Amino acid sequence: MGPKDALLGTFAIALACGVAVARQDDALKTRAERTKFEETSRLEDVEAFLGALSAKSNLVRVQTFGTSESGRPLLLATLSNPPVSEPRDVRALGRPVVFVQANIHAGEVEGKEAAQNLMRRLALGDLRPMLDHVIVMIAPDYNVDGNEAVDVMNRTEQCGPVAGVGKRENKNGLDLNRDYMKLDSAEARALVRLMNEWDPHVLVDLHTTNGSYHGYHLTYSIPLNLSFEPKLMSFERDTLMASLQKSMLEAHSFRTYYYGNFEGKAPEAGQPETRTWNAFDQRPRIGQNYGGLRNRIAILSEAYSYLDFKNRIAVTEAFVEDILRYSEQHAREILALTAGLDADFVRSAQGDGEMMLGVEYEIRALPNKVPLLVGEVTHETNPRNGKPMTVMVPDKFTKVDMQDLGYFAPTRTVAMARTYVLPRDDAMKPIVEKLRQHGIAVEELTAPLTAEVLTFTVATSTQAKRAFQGHNETRLTGTYVSNATTLAAGTIVVRLAQPLGRLAAYLLEPESDDGLVDWNFFDASLALGKPAPVSKIMRNVSMSTRALEHF
Ligand SMILES: [Zn+2]
Questions:
Q1: What is the pLDDT of residues 114-131, one digit of tens each?
Q2: Which of 96, 129, 196, 336: CA 20 to 30 A from 292?
Q3: How far is the CA of 154 from the centre of ligand 1 (A)?
Q4: What radius of gyration, in Å, describes the C-alpha atoms of the chain?
């Protein structure tokens, strides 16, 4: 080593020490904070942050709830006083559990930063008393593979972080927010397993919207499908979101409203307003609808992507803070509501009344016009890639009364079966596997059963020409015929009378708009003019069953 090399060596050591010291001081700062909001956290940053936080606070426990398609950890932090590490700890406390997931779309990164800020405040700061009343579970980096694919050319139109963000899809190109029913990805299967095991009462999913130019800092959504429990739908719309909208404005000065997009053109001067504000989808392939289908309080958060990154983090943080505060203040109500939804459903399914499920839907307007805020934007150049970013003009908006097409009502319904019946056939293995992944109880007959069985004969099968998420979605039409039938011992049965009964029906109904027929799981077992393999017993009959094993 020559003198010059020795000098270089000393310099390198000094630098490395400098970095190490800075890291220690900054361990509880997010990468966004350390870089003046030019960058977003990578997996190693989130891991280091959680490590530092759990070293400082015994109330924070860090684990993984699965691994991504690339084998990266799906991080989960639980925050509670006393601390919790397992689902049984949670149940023993009898407190509401709020689960917050960020970064499902890894180009929409402020939820991941806001989640870290909130964890710091919950463990060590002003929000610490909340942990005496609410259990907080946070998955800050759900689509971790998408997150590690940071590129300065991803989502260039949003207002920062200028050094780039991850990509929307997982490693296999799947949109995890379209994967809740088919569960094709390792990530979605891990997430649903978490829901089955921990059963959070409130599910919060953090995003960024780059849609219409509106005047809100953040928009939100709730389950939008009117086939779900009316009590849940009215609680979310009339009580919870009304309260959050108010607190966001009064406590944080942030304007919020339901997520949507303007449909139609702005009118010429003097002409009447014809634009509407449209919600997006009723299908449970999307997280907040899936949560609602499971009888849980589900909230989608969409920070406005034309608001600068720092403020997007702030508004997302405020929104989750207010959800936690609401959950703390209404703990008993939340526990009673969710337990009641499960119990009511099971009780109805044990009774005789028809229980309907939508298979076709249309978007519907709320009863009254709503003053919607139409916003304005300008453009700035991102110095890192030379691309234009769209930037919200602060506090510049016009209030326009328009119709809010805010939910989806069934236009055609079918009566759900009291028992769904599947043949004991190897072709049903993937179906049973999916049902189990969703946490649905699957049983087998232990003795032959004679009952009126409704079979669905396929008249038409329409397959989408364009693939979506690796599938050509399939919809059936057909006719039902009822016959007294004797089912052999070993026949597979799924009872409606279970807390996830409506989810089971949504997956198994042959005409469902988001079921296992739609996602091609039954393709090999379907033929025109032939009965579909799923048949239905429409009344409660006495049957002897046990949990399905060895299949
Ligand atoms: Zn998104």
A1: 999 999 999 999 999 999
A2: 129
A3: 13
A4: 25
